[in-house]
Design goal:
The protein has 267 residues and is α/β, with parallel strands linked by helices. Helix content is 37%, strand content 24%. The chain has a 6-stranded mixed β-sheet, sandwiched between helices. The protein has a 3-stranded antiparallel β-sheet with strand order 2-1-4, with helices on one face.
Amino acid sequence: MNLELADVSYGVDETEILTDVSLSLESGEIVTIIGPSGAGKTTLLRLAALFEQPTDGAIRFDRTDPWGLSRDERLAIRRRIGMVFQQACLFDAPVARNVDIGRRVRRPWPQRIRGFLERLLPRRLDDSPAVDERTLEALELVGLSDAWDRDPASLSGGEAQRVSFARALAAEPDLLVLDEPTSDLDPRNTAILERAIERAREHDHGVLLATHDMHQAERISDRVAFLLEGELVEVGPPDRIFETPRDERTARFVRGDLLYDDNELLA
């Protein structure tokens, strides 16, 4: 898998949100985007996940521009991407059903209809429903293999976010796009998700992650990208970005020295 953003810009009405952003990502790589609130991190992730079309520049997935394809062809590429948002959003169904839904909607209609009919059949003699092996593997990855039959309402916020991550992972995407997935989690849940992200990399998934946690970016990233006011200031390995950045704006941001007045960087 190869993702490339080439001189990508994006704006709404008269407002430019991203300007000439160029960034690439390979399979088995974690690229983390850091920057202040309002820098355009979420917009960049939505563009990478094909939720939005750039107003200028090009996005290439395996050297193909999805926006130059038909809707069905673009959807086929979109289904190779899994996205996890900052807030967990679960359906009113047991945890296993929540995790499996991404895989189910990707199946051809005959398989989807057969799966629906199977769920209407009587349960097995042990009175427990069959759970897909891939679903259990994804839940095990986030430490929730014993929670497959729980109601989402019984989950803590951290557990719900781990289920959201498992749902994205169960669909076996080539690319995982994560928008501050640990921002509201306690240290234990954060550590579990970070281990899951690293294991996803080991399984050759590409991971594009936005975070406000500088220590997290330093811990798990292969490369870190600093975004400021819609501009990609610099990209590099974590040790360089956090210890010897090339741009003074990056140095001031990682030190916590940036000051803002009307969203403008002060000298």
